[in-house]
Amino acid sequence: MSDSLTRRSAFEGLHPIQVEGAVTVAAMPYATRFSFRGDPKAASACSKGFGVMLPNALLKAETDNGRTAISLGPDEWLLIAPDGEVEALEASIEKALAKQHHSLVDISHRNTAFTVSGPKAETLLASGCFLDLHLSAFPVGMATRTIYSKADIVLWRTAADTFHVELWRSFVPFVWGLLEEASSEL
Amino acid sequence: MLLIPCPHCGNRPELEFRYAGEAHIARPADPSTTSDQEWAEYLYFRSNPKGLHIERWRHVSGCARFFNCVRDTVSDKILKTYPAGQPKPDLAELVKEAGQ
Questions:
Q1: So what's the ipTM on this one?
Q2: Domain extent at residue B17
């Protein structure tokens, strides 16, 4: 019996999705992720420990120095940082929050992410996402939890033609398969 | 598909929501002194109107918050949504506003 655990990417064995001149779907590297819940006071304390201002406004993402905070709800944030920072961030956030009421859950291994980029990124995502993704309705820096077909995703527009899609790793084969199918019609 | 205006996220497709029954049903403050009839009414009896209905929804695939919604059960028209915890709106007033 093996006594070590091997980390396996959720994207292992999937076909690359690339339509020349239209769209590219690419897996993102491993990352550190936290789900943070708390009131606005706890959020501003958490900002100090995390190093990025947790946005107060809903449906917004704030990025600084490779770290991102996304506001998912009035008292819920998704925090993303480079891989391998779980312990360090946990310690610094817990220190900044001292005795304030909050919840900080490590979800690094539950979630995974990929990017959809290219001039047809909006069109490809519209195959399963019901939101208006036009730049005027979904500007750069906007982020929200929504659904792609039947899977919960967090959609974040990082550039005019690039989306970051955050989802549970077990949903990857389902979402990837649908995107692959839809990309054949672009 | 219904377009439901979440009080936090704005207009969103119905698929992101879960219905959660009639709103403003208060649990009896002291269940041990409540009669069986009163308890049964609290648990199971709902107004089921033909017309305006105040109901709870949860934006589960969005902000994940519960909120309240005034919907016409005949036309499915949504007159108002407001965060959970706010008082019941004046229905007559809402109808007047919608009629204008």
A1: 0.87
A2: 3-98
Return residues 16-35 of A near B (CB < 8 Å). Answer: none
Provide the pLDDT for residue A182.
96
Domain total of chain B: 1
Verify whether the Cβ–Cβ distance B61 to A147 is below 8 Å: yes
Architecture of domain A21-183 in this structure? 2-Layer Sandwich (3.30)
Q: Looking at the partner chain, which of A72, A131, A147 has a beta carbon nearest the beta carbon of B63?
A: A72
Provide block-wise average pLDDT over 10 residues at a time, chain B (100 residues): 93 95 94 94 95 96 96 94 94 84
Rounded to two decimals, what is the model's pTM?
0.91
Q: What is the pLDDT of residue A42?
A: 95
> Number of residue pairs across A and B with CB atoms under 8 Å?
36
Q: What is the CATH number of the domain that holds B64?
A: 3.30.2270.10
Q: Which residues of chain A have pLDDT under 50?
A: none
What would the 3-class secondary structure string for chain A be?
CCCCCCCCCCCCCCCCEEECCCEEEEECCCEEEEEEECCHHHHHHHHHHHCCCCCCCCCEEEEECCEEEEEEECCEEEEEEECCCHHHHHHHHHHHHCCCCCEEEECCCCEEEEEEECCCHHHHHCCCECCCCCCCCCCCCEEEEEEECCEEEEEEEEECCEEEEEEEHHHHHHHHHHHHHHHCCC
Domains of chain A by residue range:
21-183
* pLDDT reported for residue A2: 67
